[in-house]
Amino acid sequence: MSDSIKRIGVLTSGGDAPGMNAAVRAVVRACIYYEIEVFGVYRGYDGLINDNIEQLYVRSVSNILSRGGTFLGSARSAEFRTMDGRAKAYENFKKHELDALIVIGGDGSFTGADVFSQEFDVPVIGIPGTIDNDLAGTDLTIGFDTACNTAREAIDKIRDTASSHDRLFFIEVMGRDAGFIAVNVAIGGGAVGMIVPEHNWSMEKLIKRLQKGAANQKASNVVIVAEGCNLGGAYDIAKEVKKQLDYYDIRVTVLGHLRRGGSPTTIDRVLASRLGVAAVEGLRKGHSKEMVGVINNQIAYTPIGQAIKTEKRLDPEEFRIAKILSI
User: Fold this and answer.
1) pTM
2) The 3-state secondary structure of 53-99, one letter per residue
3) Catalytic residues
4) pLDDT in tens, 179-218
5) Which residues of the chain have pLDDT under 50?
6) What domains appear along the chain, each with residue ranges and CATH number?
């Protein structure tokens, strides 16, 4: 065990994800358990640059376990991408006599953490907090389960309308360049099809799928569109489908940032709590420049560079199941 870790800073960066508060809470309580002082950095890397830092205590994280978002605030810092900005951040890091930094965020946040750690030899541990679930080195990222549940609930409601009026709905979900949310909500929401960035769908294939659904007299049709797919956004796809299948009454719903908010699910709360404790314990054991994750229900540490650069692939079995169930 390392006795050199006496003070730890924690920040949330990038897009918010349900469960970030639970992770901060776990970091704070684990630090106090191990008699380490913990400091919250507000507004992400901008807070580190502008010295928006204060010590946190047990009462600082009271009643935040169930809250979505992040009470520390988050931001994408353009200044931190510059050497001068990171130098300012390091000055404040030393001013508060911090020994290590825990960064909760996605690949952009981890890229900054990795560079900062290398330039100034700062021990850093990353906690994966992103609804996209696109980081290698962990089966799930914080916020993914909640985002899937929020999207699935919306789809269930939309399906009621689709069934009542015999409509075809294209529902666009977030996920940037990853289709993890789309695949999960397509299966959970009973979609007739899903269009994700990882698979190069053609309009011809989509038309055939919809024609098959019509032939099977499906009462409603829902197609899930991941925002980064090759055919464009949901509105573009719907417009093209209408040209070829004009008998469909087509509607489009873009769920957008609706899925970022809300109270985290139990799965996300437990995951965030495990990772928060593991981040603190990892620093005490000498881990640095690593992301902590859970693989096969076991805590795992992965070099941050590897977590960012390794492509996390969709499970082909989920595609097979979705295809069987969409008939």
Assistant:
1) 0.91
2) EEEECHHHHCCCCCCCCCCCCCCCCCHHHCHHHHHHHHHHHHHCCCC
3) 132
4) 899 999 999 988 888 888 777 777 888 888 788 766 555 5
5) none
6) 7-143+264-309 (3.40.50.450), 146-260 (3.40.50.460)
